[in-house]
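S.,

Sequence below, as promised.
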Amino acid sequence: MTAIRDDANLLAWLDEVLPLPALDDPRVVTRGEALRDVGAAAIRYRCRVGTWLRMAPSVYLVDPPATPFDRLQAAARHGGASSVLSGPAALAALGFRTIRPPRRELVLVPADSGVESWGRIQVRRTARLPGAHHRHGLPLAPVARAVADYVLSMPRLDQVQATVAEAVQRRFCTVADLARELEAGPRGGSHRFREALRDVGYGARSVPEATAGRLLRGAGVGGFVQNGEVQVAGRLFVADFLWAELRAVLEIDSTEHHLSPEDHAATLERDQLLQAAGYVVMHVKPSQLRDPGRFVRLVRDWLSAIARRGT
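The prediction came back faster than expected:
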């Protein structure tokens, strides 16, 4: 199992989005490091006049203003040699699309550590300190752990679903990795995480797909496979929802996959090939899921019509 798959993407994101300091000219230093070159009075003076910025009690930025990379470095230095960045800070550093720039940096430290939270640096003591994946000096938690630490504090199910789906869809980690973190982690706030994992386990790749699958199963409309594979004309397609016996395909047209003319043309070609092979294809917009009863009736009537046609 490889938790972080796309190292090239990570390195490119760090290089382009987070400005890197020269190795021989560090921007973030600890007090001990600073005292090798200047005295305590000089440190106080530089912080007072603004040529240095105090990022934490014993961590300084020697060339303000702070960049996102500086803040991540400062959080890790404040946490100490064994600390690991997790939650939104680690996921943002991995280029997660569903993560907004973090307002706080979560740092995991050993349970017996005496380090305290400070400013925007959130320190969490844990007996389950994970091993870090080091990238440009940043100690990042494994993706499954970072996701778990992030989603447990999220108030909305759709936010949790989006993050969990992205982690699995982009193959940063597996459903099993996330399930292990769920069971090993705290119970508070875990019900949304558990429900999102159940949706992804059924095959949902997006929030609308997860919602549609949950509505259909809840209404007793079964017999389908999410992300079912269909091979026609020598090509393999993945259907959002597939009723294989009825040769019925339901697609949830998430805007993420239907924005460009190229996407539209590819969807049209796929539908034509499926229909030529005897499949019936129906597209539903995510907005139609806002009326669950109407959506379920539409799908049920559509499936009934297909079944009658085959008798």
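The first helix runs from residue 7 to 17.

Coffee later?
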